[in-house]
Amino acid sequence: MAFNEIKRVNTCGICEEITEESLISNHKCLEGYKRYFTDGNRYFYPVCDNGLIMRRSAMDNGVESIVLDEPSSHPEKNTGEHGAVEEPSSVNNSSDSTELEELLIEEVSKWEALYNYNLPLIQRNRTITGEAWKAVSEALQGRLNPKEAAKKWKILRDTYYRKLAEEKLPSGSGRPTTKRKWKHFDQLDFLRDVSLRKKTTSNLSNDEENEENIPPIPKKNRSSTLSSESTESSVAINKIADAITTMNAISEPIKLPALPPLVKQDEVDGLFLIMGTQIRKLPEKERNNLIFEMMSFFREKISRLSHLL
């Protein structure tokens, strides 16, 4: 395949949608912004008029939120309607990113709990998946921490399923124009096996239940109702039996985490609740600028009153 046929793609740092490099300036998250910033991982972010970038970040309470941040100092480069503040990029950076993604896919494929949602919950709970992501991060020699690895894997997995769905579309006007195969499509083909296994298992289970639980011939006017009730009862009984068997196999009782105490709201919570309701009514651009101004104001005031804290 000729080199000029390769299309570079980037990921939006706000909505995480994968976008071809040539289409970045038309992306929905950049509407109303004159410039955008692209980092070394090929994530792009809108740039405000004051030079700060908008990005998604995890807060201390584990909730992700949109924050304003300063980009690294790099020379600006104009690209038509949007100016792009970009980090230096090269073919080597693209190759390194592709290599890292291939290594990530290879390592994830070794941990079925990270991709096979057909497994029972006891085999893919948070403890198990957390340890698995730590192992993946170590195998990548720390190039991605566990959270970054999980985030990048989600993007790769979702892209594969989207490409797989496009492959199954019937021919006609609704089918997208045929393009070259996505670079990771073949390596991620084990996800297709998981999907097929789920459908096959479901079909086999239904066939066995129907063979073992053939209902007697009902009255003519109630045939469909009795057949449906018999099948539903059989499925429910089997699920209860499986649950009991699973619980008996556990050597120690499951200890549920204690719920945190309820936090009593005070006048500060009430103030921010009222302010938040009004701020959400503003257009996106004005809303973000107001949030930045408020953050700057609070930072300055708190700095002056730090001796009281």
UniProtKB/TrEMBL annotation:
<dbReference type="Pfam" id="PF10545">
    <property type="entry name" value="MADF_DNA_bdg"/>
</dbReference>
<dbReference type="GO" id="GO:0005667">
    <property type="term" value="C:transcription regulator complex"/>
</dbReference>
<feature type="domain" description="MADF">
    <location>
        <begin position="103"/>
        <end position="196"/>
    </location>
</feature>
<dbReference type="GO" id="GO:0006357">
    <property type="term" value="P:regulation of transcription by RNA polymerase II"/>
</dbReference>
<feature type="region of interest" description="Disordered">
    <location>
        <begin position="200"/>
        <end position="231"/>
    </location>
</feature>
<protein>
    <submittedName>
        <fullName>Uncharacterized protein LOC112451873</fullName>
    </submittedName>
</protein>
<dbReference type="InterPro" id="IPR006578">
    <property type="entry name" value="MADF-dom"/>
</dbReference>
<feature type="compositionally biased region" description="Basic and acidic residues">
    <location>
        <begin position="71"/>
        <end position="85"/>
    </location>
</feature>
<dbReference type="GO" id="GO:0005634">
    <property type="term" value="C:nucleus"/>
</dbReference>
<feature type="region of interest" description="Disordered">
    <location>
        <begin position="68"/>
        <end position="98"/>
    </location>
</feature>
<dbReference type="InterPro" id="IPR039353">
    <property type="entry name" value="TF_Adf1"/>
</dbReference>
